[in-house]
Amino acid sequence: xxxxxxxxxxxxxxxxxxxxxxxxxxxxxxxxxxxxxxxxxxxxxxxxxxxxxxxxxxxxxxxxxxxxxxxxxxxxxxxxxxxxxxxxxxxxxxxxxxxxxxxxxxxxxxxxxxxxxxxxxxxxxxxxxxxxxxxxxxxxxxxxxxxxxxxxxxxxxxxxxxxxxxxxxxxxx
Length: 173
Known about the structure:
Elements lengths: L2 E7 L5 H4 L13 E11 L5 E16 L6 E15 L2 H6 L10 E5 L6 H12 L14 H12 L13 H8 L1
Parallel strand pairs: 4-5
Antiparallel strand pairs: 1-2, 2-3, 3-4
């Protein structure tokens, strides 16, 4: 049986992904837009294998790790899977080296949950360190320091604690 479908899902269906969102602010996440198709394909005269193509798109507010300000990250995922009935079949499958990155094994049992697969794929699409695109990161405190340095109107004094202050107090006692 083949299937072709598309749609949009509310983010409330993905509790682990919700934990990654920046709280507050005026940036709102989009719905998860998905497209999925399945088909059968015969490989080297063997048993037909079932394939699944899954494409996902989502705009998600994250916290930039450089300036700690919210920004909008666009996540896109475009993956092909070969569906297997058991873990053993998936582990035994010999993925050819030239197509190693193009398809993943996925076990499709009676309890297969497409929402979990979508959430896993989106979590794997998150950046390792969330950051604004280059040139867009504008930390507020650093901007203030830069303006002060440019204008020369205020003197910036950075007080470092004296490491010998404790000894000096002991000496006075």
